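Handoff note, outgoing to incoming analyst
You'll be picking up this chain. Sequence as last confirmed:
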Amino acid sequence: MGNKGRILAAGLSLAVLAAAVPLYSQPYWGWGPYWGYNPYYYPYYYYDPRGTIDLESTNETDQVYINGAYAGTVDDLDTIWLNPGKYNVKIVRGNRILVQRDVYVVSGEEVDIDVR
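Most recent structure output, in case you need it:
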């Protein structure tokens, strides 16, 4: 086999090897999906950019509206996780509005709304 044959054989073997390993695969680090994770490809923690609104009320059946849409009762929504921004929070008991407040939610902060 001449030089052209060896070069052709080497090229074909590299092409077969490249086709066998997909481009999106990671190198093997000794950890598989069932034994752990590779620290070079996954972050150690997840940063949650949301803020919270903490609701307190003596009557747990008070209705909560956020930006005019019904969100649930105070019992269901003890703590509400929201993206940063301005929200209009309204708490209603029967036909009476107990609290109507513009709330600015900041990332990682908690806003308390107390109805007593």
